[in-house]
Amino acid sequence: MDTKSLLKIDCLREAAASYGSSPYCFGLGFIQLKLSDQARMHFWHMAVPHVEREEIHNHRYDFTSVILAGALRQELYHVRPGHATFEPIIQSEWEMFETTCAPGEEGAVTTTQPVEVISLGAVNLAKGSNYSLPITAFHTTEGTDFAITFLRRGEKVKQFAEIVKLKGAPTTCPFANPGTPEDCWEMIKLALDYAKL
Length: 197
Description:
Largest sheet: 11 strands, antiparallel
Helix content: 10-25%
Number of domains: 1
Low-confidence stretches: none
Number of strands: 11
CATH architecture: Sandwich
Radius of gyration: 17 Å
CATH topology: Jelly Rolls
Distance between the termini: 23 Å
């Protein structure tokens, strides 16, 4: 699909139907729509429920993304085993755990590892920006208010993604409240209409 088609609700519905997917709501404040095994659309909009905090995390695959509308705020982190002993330190009491990070397969957290977390900085990526993240990169997009992105992921090379949280804090589940497909389509339409303003 070309970029213009990615911003048209009818084209997205047709592509999703061809792939056999429906959109669902991440509790982290965006809707995900899978268009193929590798291609995804993400929609951040004020109407999308943001019921979970976003943990610092990496992914099971490398990916490249382009900002089709709005702006994506991304924060990057360096995470390593041990206890933080130098600046700039976000917080010295962090722990890391693994998850499959897939709907219906979140699983329970059985082991955690203490880690250091160091901020590498934040960037606002405007419409037209491209970025790539390797599986080793830890990030969040917590500060994003409105954006539409097209993501192309590589092959899964790890069984688990790694999530960093404050020591003792409860784990969150971004798939806990997926919403109905039609509710998600309505929010996608709101985001697409907002992009035209």
